[in-house]
Design goal:
2 domains, globular, alpha/beta, 14 helices, 7-stranded mixed sheet
Length: 340
Amino acid sequence: MRSFGSDNNSGIHPIILEALSEANQNHAVAYGNDPWTEKAIRLIKDYFGEQAEPFFVFNGTGANAIAIQATTRSFQSILAAETAHIAVDECGAPVFMSGASLKEIPTPNGKLTPELLKPYLHHWGNEHHSQPKTIYISQCSELGTVYSVQEIKDLADIAHDHTMYLHVDGARLANAVVAINSSFKEMITDTGVDILSFGGTKNGMMLGEAVVSFRKELSDNLKYIRKQSAQLYSKMRYCSAQFVAYLQHDLWRKNAAHANRMAKLLRDAMTDLPQTHFTQPTDANILLLKIPRKVINTLLENHFFYIWNEELDEIRWVTSWDTGEDDFSKLIEDLRKVVL
């Protein structure tokens, strides 16, 4: 069954599976001392710049937790939108593993701005208060909105003005880059991002993410933090081989472009339907909309998706690299039967 619950529910792209099979032909030295990891590191540097230092890990929660451990000490705090992934979907893992406090900031669209941050940039040097140290954003946001390059630069600037770090959770970074016709380097390196959780699992990979550091003082400790956090993969080649396939022939771009296009087609197919109200723009591959609860319950009988906000009867649909028009035609057909 095709699902609109999450792009995590999608399958593995055939090119990724082929790369895994090729990496499985013989023995290779463990813990990243293999040619696939060497090539994956080279490709990430090609995309992000020579200062980029990648550390491959198992999953997104691990990547976020490691990045926050690298940037934030236990007496410091993380500033994030109240809808941020680390605030609502990671069972407190980054706070648990770093000891830092999390300040959740209300936003209208899931995106932080310098103006929203300013009320939290106080109490410097006061031992009674956690000291702000890391600004965390998701690109795309959990509401499907995408930061512009300038918006990220503005956040990096305010972070650096206060001796803080900017951490970008890039679980859907490919979708964001494609959405605004940018590049990884322009969006991340050139804006001044300090550390990145670079994901591929939502965009065709089987498993594996990379924590990419752009600051030497962060890179120096990341390999130790990764080991302590149980995120050092002994058979690293199976993670690295996926990144090689993902990056070397622009598979990341093709997959993300398709997922984004499917989301826009799905939204366009609903423009004439009553009782449906989109609550956020569809910048990439996430749709947020409100429909009556009785309609939600009817759709859930034959389709899988999540209710984003129970109080508002707001749902979230996510398209994937393998979503086809036939996959959502039945969804739209069933929706029309209920609302028309």
